[in-house]
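Need the bound structure for S-adenosylmethionine, inputs here:
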Amino acid sequence: MEFCNQKKNYFLIKISTSDPGIYNQASTLKSFLRKDYNPGASLLVLVFLPENVDEILERFVKLFPGADIVETGLSPVPGTPGYEGLISEKISIISGLGGMMPKERQVLVKSFLSFGSGFHPTTRLCARLMERMFSGRMKDILDVGTGSGILALCAWRLGARRVLAVDTSFGAIKEAGSNIKANGASGSILVVHGSADCARPKGFDLVVANLTIGVMKGLAPSFPLLLRKGGHMILSGFVEKHKQLVLEKLESSEIIEEDELDGWKGVVLSEG
Ligand SMILES: C[S@@+](CC[C@H](N)C(=O)[O-])C[C@H]1O[C@@H](n2cnc3c(N)ncnc32)[C@H](O)[C@@H]1O
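Answer from helper R.:
Posting the output first, comments after.
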């Protein structure tokens, strides 16, 4: 089963804003379908037909140069519960409003107003790499920038004993907590408002971090210090031309594996 069925996809642009009115002009963009606003999360979702996606994004950025874009991506049936699709070879994401009991290899994402619906290539790269290299020896996992909690939940489904999920956004923490509860994983995943400095040095077998390049460059040097001997990092959120900027921050670590999806990179590194 492929994750996205092209025929049913829509293109979504999620924007963090407390004034959705300023985006009224977005309806003039080609392929615009509708917008949804969540006042609690200050999140506006613009929905487009999935035609000329790059052009839509380019025009959007020209129209609103200062827009705080949280996530862009293709969603099979935006906002519709009941969707199920693979994020990696074994784990599928199901969407719903709660009250569902996900099965062993399913992760329920009840709400994905924060980054982390599972549709973005960087999330999928992290999930795929984590699944490929996961072993029974990996007990403690740190998810830096957990967003909706999706990667923490994937780690838990793969068999992690304890997951620490951190994020600097209050909205993300709230949402991750709610998704984790909906999956019945609250006993194994601890969600904390903060960043990598909340984590215990040498306390983790795996650090997974899907972060924008600016944040990644700042945090990457701290990751090896958080790993136990023989531990690994899975990093994504950057494109090929920025990969070297990340690796420069991790000079004593070695690339074990890498992958690419739609121009985005994902790398697995040793502790160094
Ligand atoms: C690209 S999203 C990744 C979400 C999710 N892990 C996924 O893979 O789909 C990055 C997340 O990092 C969070 N973030 C940004 N700066 C951070 C920092 N310095 N420390 C921790 N989290 C941060 C953002 O709030 C956002 O939720």
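Comments: The chain has two domains: 6-75, 112-270. DSSP finds seven helices and 14 strands in the chain.
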